[in-house]
Amino acid sequence: xxxxxxxxxFVVQGTEVVIEANGNAPLRVAAQQALKQAGDYGRAxxxxxxxxxxxxxxxxxxxxxxxxxxxxALLYMTLTVGVNxxxxxxxxxx
Amino acid sequence: xxxxxRGAVPQxxxxxxxxxxxxxxxxxxxxxxADYARRGWWILEANYPTVxxxxxxxxxxxxxxxxxxxxxxxxxxxxxxxxxxVNPFTKEPYRKRNLPIVMHRAQSVAMPAPEGAPVGLQxxxxxxxxxMQAHQPDDVPFLCIPGVREYHQHPAHTGDHWLLxxxxxxxxxxxxxxxxxTYGVQPLNGYNVAVALKGxxxxxxxx
Lengths: 94, 207
What we know:
The structure holds two protein chains of two kinds. Chain A is mainly beta. Chain A has one helix at 27-37, and strands at residues 5-12, 15-22, 48-51, 74-79, 89-93. Chain A has a four-stranded mixed beta sheet with strand order 2-1-4-3, covered by helices on one side. Mean pLDDT of chain A is 83; it is low at 85-94. By secondary structure, chain B is of the alpha+beta class. A four-stranded antiparallel beta sheet of chain B has the order 3-4-5-6. The chains are: A mainly beta, B alpha+beta. Chains A and B meet through strand 4 and strand 5 of A and strand 7, strand 8 and helix 4 of B.
């Protein structure tokens, strides 16, 4: 790690890009760069989820350093699923 | 003309175009095969226009082979792929009634506040939306998300044309496999075991 920077490997819809991210910047900055480098799908960042290797969704407003992302960390960026299906039951009340 | 589990589909797009785009999808997948294998994704066959993949659940002990999927890329990407969940051993399409996995997506829904409730009160419910849809239990269900041929061909979705999504990341091999994995396989965390009592066991009969 140089100057608080880490190289993050993003897999954007299956396309791999490596972004040098600033540990003090929110993850959304690196995610936006990854999206652009992967080909810019014409979708807003809000349409995407960033997950770690375990499948946990990361809060992109948190700083890279606070998320404990180390050099070489693998992150998946996937589109959130849009659905027009039926809604058969209400499972849980907030 | 290609035969899919849902019937014959004529090839109308230049075969060169569709086969090249099909190969691109596979090449992109091939760049991270090891990662996908760790998730339990196995592509067993890939000959245009069909990809046959099987999902395992490595997080279970013992691990399980969960289901298979046939993805048909005929006329890709003028048309999106067709997706059918199948028996991983026989490739027989599952019916709604015998799907081995439930694919639910939690979705928050705002509800109107009851009469007399304080001003500004908002109620929200978490609703489980089924991603595999069928009209009857014996129908072959379809994956109800944009980027899937059956979704865009359904009369309820005529206002959401595939060409509005094409090139936007949906309808790709990765997106389809990842959706089935995220909502159907990754949530599995154990086996449901039922114990049934059937009469008594007994020792050797006395002489």
